[in-house]
């Protein structure tokens, strides 16, 4: 087999790259001189590659020549320059929760940037399968970080965290009370991640999840608007409403000839939708969800205070470690980690470490 045949066979085994590090390709605002490119094909990245167009096409799997051209140019990856160096004198010496509060209150993080957005990750036992979802931080107290959600399904993490109910179903019928041992043990280890890209900072929290009492959850529940309360009752979170088998999707797609766009009524986002969306779309399960909503609205008609669903509530992540990351040029970031070694709440004792970036 010739060298060329061997190279072609190797390329055919490579998975197609839909995007190949377009952010790391050196920018080139002008098309290179054709004679220079011809004389030395690796001396300048071709304009169509520098612009990223070819790398986003259906044939974007790089050839060995393309890879050589890309690797021969310095990357233009983002450099972190927003903050001064982070030193030990700039962070709280004894309490990571107070340090988090200081960063969270940074005036450079306006409310419009939703700094409370975080990712909660958990893992099921015994497989160790990990799942994550984006939530909003609602409270920070002396014990830890509090988030609220529907916990009645695997995707809602109820069974992962609190274990299966007595029937063995992969769900929970109701939130356990703090210290409740009436259910099969779940995996209470969890992690929260906050990423504040505008200030080039990240916070990672790892610890044990504990349920809030029903009374605590009800305090927050009463602050939610009525529509959100109805939605919480109506939605069997992550339950499949509709599905299509492989090979059947084409018959469910919108006809391209009638896909005229119109603005969304009442929207200021500038996003358009097909003008005939109600006429040409098949029922994809949304109608069932809206039916459940209507049923709940009738059920609670005239009820001034909608009760808290048994499967909905808050959990607190009690930290075992908290890491504060701040970007720095050349990827030599500053990272400090607190490790809890004793106590809890304001009485907790923490070991402070600087980590290699």
TrEMBL record:
Basic and acidic residues: bias regions: 1-12
Transmembrane segments: none
GO MF assignments: FMN binding; pyridoxamine phosphate oxidase activity
Keywords of the record: Flavoprotein, FMN, Oxidoreductase
Superkingdom in the source lineage: Eukaryota
Segments for region (Disordered): 1-44
E.C. numbers: 1.4.3.5
PROSITE patterns: PYRIDOX_OXIDASE
Pfam families (alphabetical): PNP_phzG_C
UniProt KW Transcription keyword: no
Biased composition (Polar residues): 30-43
Name recorded for this polypeptide: pyridoxal 5'-phosphate synthase
């Amino acid at each position: 087999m010739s060298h060329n045949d061997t190279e072609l066979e190797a390329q055919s085994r490579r998975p197609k790259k839909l995007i190949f590090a377009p952010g790391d390709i050196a920018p080139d605002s002008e098309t290179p001189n054709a004679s220079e490119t011809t004389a030395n094909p690796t001396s300048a990245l071709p304009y169509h590659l520098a612009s990223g167009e070819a790398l986003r096409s259906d044939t974007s799997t790089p050839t060995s020549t393309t890879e050589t051209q890309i690797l021969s140019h310095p990357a233009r990856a983002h450099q972190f320059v927003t903050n001064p160096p982070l030193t030990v004198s700039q962070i709280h010496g004894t309490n990571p929760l107070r340090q988090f509060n200081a960063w969270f209150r940074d005036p450079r993080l306006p409310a419009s940037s939703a700094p409370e957005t975080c990712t909660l990750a958990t893992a099921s036992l015994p497989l160790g399968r990990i799942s994550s979802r984006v939530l909003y931080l609602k409270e920070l107290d002396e014990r830890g970080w509090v988030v609220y959600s529907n916990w009645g399904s695997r995707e809602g993490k109820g069974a992962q965290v609190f274990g299966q109910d007595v029937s063995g179903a992969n769900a929970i019928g109701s939130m356990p009370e703090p210290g409740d041992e009436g259910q099969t043990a779940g995996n209470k280890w969890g992690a929260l991640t906050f990423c504040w890209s505008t200030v080039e900072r990240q916070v990672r929290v790892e610890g044990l999840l504990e349920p809030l009492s029903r009374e605590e959850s009800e305090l927050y529940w009463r602050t939610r608007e009525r529509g959100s309360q109805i939605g919480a009752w109506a939605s069997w979170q992550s339950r499949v409403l509709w599905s299509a088998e492989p090979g059947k999707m084409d018959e469910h797609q919108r006809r391209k000839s009638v896909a005229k766009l119109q603005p969304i009524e009442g929207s200021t986002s500038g996003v358009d939708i097909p003008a005939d969306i109600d006429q040409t779309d098949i029922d994809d399960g949304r109608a069932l969800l809206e039916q459940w909503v209507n049923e709940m609205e009738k059920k609670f008609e005239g009820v001034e205070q909608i009760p808290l669903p048994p499967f909905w509530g808050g959990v607190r992540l009690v930290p075992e470690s908290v890491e504060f990351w701040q970007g720095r040029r050349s990827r030599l970031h500053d990272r400090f980690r607190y490790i809890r070694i004793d106590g809890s709440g304001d009485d907790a004792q923490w070991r402070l470490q600087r980590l290699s970036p």
